[in-house]
């Protein structure tokens, strides 16, 4: 798998920092510290997990959660495929979620566990999204995939070597840094 074409993919900045400062703290959330190396790795895992679910360029995933590391992982993972990550307010009603999912052509919804009551209502009106593609973060929901056992866990080291920007020189955003060179 390759990162989608285009040097303007914002998620690449995490690949740059992951390569140059892998042990530097990227995120602090609650009692959790995530380094740039870990964050970049998890973004890659999400990209591969979405790809295994059939995601590719010009497909959409809806994200319905509060600010948390997984939000950024899904957003960037989708971006690395050239897919769209559509952010939906965690305050949205079921009707609003249905409207947004249908109009963006969502193939999956990734949501926070405590929002299941809204997603459950919306799910009835979204037959185009497979049950396995309702993915819960931070808990469980009946009949839904679990983020913690899915996208972020599916990525293997062999696949990581294949995940690279199409034009590494163009992906540096003009910074004097080098992206990791993947082994052939």
Structural features, described:
The protein has helices at 12-20, 36-52, 69-81, 94-104, 116-123, 157-162, and strands at 25-29, 32-35, 60-64, 84-87, 106-112, 134-137, 145-146. By secondary structure, it is an alpha/beta fold. It has one domain: Rossmann fold. The strands form two sheets. Strands 4-3-5-6-7 form a five-stranded parallel beta sheet, sandwiched between helices. α1 (12-20) crosses α2 (36-52), α2 (36-52) crosses α3 and α4 (94-104) packs across α5 (116-123).
Could you give a short description of this structure?
The protein is an alpha/beta fold.
Structural class: alpha/beta
| Number of H- or I-type helical stretches | 6
In angstroms, what separates the terminal alpha carbons?
Answer: 13 Å
Largest sheet: 5 strands, parallel
* SSE string, helices as H and strands as E: HEEHEHEHEHEEH
- The rough form would be described as globular
Order of strands, widest sheet? 4-3-5-6-7
**How much of the residues is beta strand, in percent?**
15-25%
Radius of gyration, CA atoms, in whole angstroms: 16 Å
Highest CATH level, the class: Alpha Beta
**Would you give the CATH topology?**
Rossmann fold
Low-confidence stretches: 151-184
Can you tell me the CATH architecture? 3-Layer(aba) Sandwich
Compute the number of strand runs: 7
Percent helix: 25-40%
Mean residue pLDDT: 81
How many domains make up the coordinates? 1
């Amino acid at each position: 798998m390759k990162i989608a074409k285009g040097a303007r993919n914002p998620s690449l900045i995490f690949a740059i920092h992951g390569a140059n400062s892998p042990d530097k703290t990227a995120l602090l959330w609650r009692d959790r510290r995530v380094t740039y190396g870990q964050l970049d790795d998890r973004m890659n895992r999400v990209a591969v997990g979405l790809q295994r679910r059939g995601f590719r360029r010009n497909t959409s995933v809806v994200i319905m959660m509060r600010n948390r590391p997984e939000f950024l992982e899904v957003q960037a993972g989708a971006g690395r495929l050239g897919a769209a990550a559509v952010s939906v307010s965690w305050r949205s009603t079921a009707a609003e979620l249905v409207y947004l999912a249908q109009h963006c052509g969502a193939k999956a919804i990734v949501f926070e566990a405590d929002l299941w009551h809204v997603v459950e209502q919306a799910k009835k009106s979204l037959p185009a999204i497979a049950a396995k593609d309702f993915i819960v973060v931070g808990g469980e929901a009946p009949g839904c995939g679990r983020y913690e056992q899915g996208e972020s866990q599916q990525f293997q080291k062999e696949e990581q070597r294949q995940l690279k920007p199409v034009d590494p020189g163009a992906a540096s955003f003009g910074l004097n840094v080098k992206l990791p060179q993947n082994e052939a």
